[in-house]
């Protein structure tokens, strides 16, 4: 298999690949770094290098990951990967291209979309729905029945109370405690969480 992206996210996914006894053949990156550890080769992507490969898009930025997905989806197939130390309920669905990192806990009846990153030690409780291209950062905790819409990013160690909806492309700041619905494209920080930006514009509250 191969990785698209050769920065920090690729380094942790390479480790995940080895933990699962898979082989990484090479990486591609639009702007290859001078050096990638472990003597792995990084090339600029071409249709020949991507064609019929099994691949993970190893890019933390949700919008960029989605953009690349649309550019290459006709060429390759996408691998889904889960670290052996993660607990993923047998009643959970996980979409293609999603990675589940070490020590994650995902409880029953959760649905996780395509090309998501469920990062180290995140907790996703029962019946949550995580749409495509979402990133749940390390140690974030989601109580039951939460809907996280496409492209949202839940920051490091954020805590989300049960039953709420996080809108498309919303960003929940590190350590925030979110008690109510968050609209699309909002940036929320603090405890209790408050909106500091909407659509990239400062809120002024
Ligand atoms: C493996 C990995 O590395 S995965 C990646 C994990 N990383 C994360 O989760 C990071 C998430 N990002 C954050 O928390 C960021 O601080 C953001 C996106 C919420 C805000 O970033 P910016 O838009 O650049 O806002 P900026 O830094 O200008 O801060 C604006 C205000 O919000 C405050 N603020 C920013 N982030 C937070 C936060 N997480 N909690 C509380 N307050 C915050 C700032 O102190 C500042 O307040 P002030 O105006 O009173 O001085």
Walk me through this protein's architecture.
This protein is α/β, with parallel strands linked by helices. The protein folds into 2 domains: 2-78, Rossmann fold; 81-194, Hexapeptide repeat proteins (UDP N-Acetylglucosamine Acyltransferase, domain 1), CATH 2.160.10.10. The chain has 3 helices and 25 strands. It has helices spanning 8-19, 47-50, 62-72, and strands at residues 2-4, 26-28, 42-43, 54-57, 77-78, 81-82, 87-88, 93-94, 99-100, 105-106, 111-112, 117-118, 123-124, 129-130, 135-136, 141-142, 147-148, 153-154, 159-160, 165-166, 171-172, 177-178, 186-189, 194-198, 201-202. The strands form 4 sheets. Strands 6-9-12-15-18-21-23-24-25 form a 9-stranded mixed beta sheet, covered by helices on one side. The protein has a 6-stranded parallel beta sheet with strand order 7-10-13-16-19-22, with no helix packed on it. Helix 3 (62-72) links the parallel strand 4 and strand 5 (77-78). The protein is globular and about 50 Å long. The protein starts with a strand and ends with a strand. The mean pLDDT is 96. The structure holds acetyl coenzyme *A. The site of acetyl coenzyme *A has 14 residues, from strand 23.
> How far apart are the first and last residues' alpha carbons, in Å?
48 Å
Class derived from helix and strand content:
alpha/beta
Small molecules in complex: acetyl coenzyme *A
Q: Largest sheet at a glance?
A: 9 strands, mixed
- Number of helical segments with 4 or more residues: 3
Task: Compute the number of strand runs.
Answer: 25
State the strand order across the main sheet.
6-9-12-15-18-21-23-24-25
- Taken from the alpha-carbon principal axes, the silhouette is globular
CATH topology type of the largest domain: UDP N-Acetylglucosamine Acyltransferase, domain 1
Q: What's the SSE pattern?
A: EHEEHEHEEEEEEEEEEEEEEEEEEEEE
- Indicate how many domains the architecture comprises: 2
What is the arithmetic mean of pLDDT?
A: 96
The unreliable regions are none
- Name of the top-level CATH class of the largest domain: Mainly Beta
What level of helicity do the residues show? 10-25%
Family: Belongs to the transferase hexapeptide repeat family.
Binding site for acetyl-CoA: 135
GO molecular function: transferase activity
Site (Increases basicity of active site His): 127
């Amino acid at each position: 298999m191969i990785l698209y992206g050769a920065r920090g996210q690729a380094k942790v996914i390479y480790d995940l690949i080895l933990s699962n006894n898979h082989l990484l053949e090479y990486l591609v990156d639009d702007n290859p770094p001078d050096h990638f550890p472990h003597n792995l080769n990084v090339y600029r992507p071409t249709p020949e290098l991507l064609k019929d490969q099994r691949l993970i898009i190893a890019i933390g930025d949700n919008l960029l990951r989605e953009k690349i997905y649309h550019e290459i989806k006709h060429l390759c197939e996408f691998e889904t990967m889960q670290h052996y130390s993660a607990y993923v309920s047998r009643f959970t669905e996980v979409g293609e291209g999603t990675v589940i990192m070490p020590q994650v806990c995902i409880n029953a009846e959760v649905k996780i979309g395509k090309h998501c990153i469920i990062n180290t030690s995140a907790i996703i409780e029962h019946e949550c729905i995580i749409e495509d291209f979402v990133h749940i950062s390390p140690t974030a905790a989601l109580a039951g029945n939460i809907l996280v819409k496409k492209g949202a990013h839940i920051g490091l160690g954020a805590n989300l109370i049960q039953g709420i909806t996080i809108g498309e492309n919303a960003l929940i700041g590190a350590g925030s405690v979110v008690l109510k619905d968050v609209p699309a494209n909002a940036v929320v920080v603090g405890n209790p969480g408050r909106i500091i930006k909407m659509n990239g514009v400062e809120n002024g509250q």
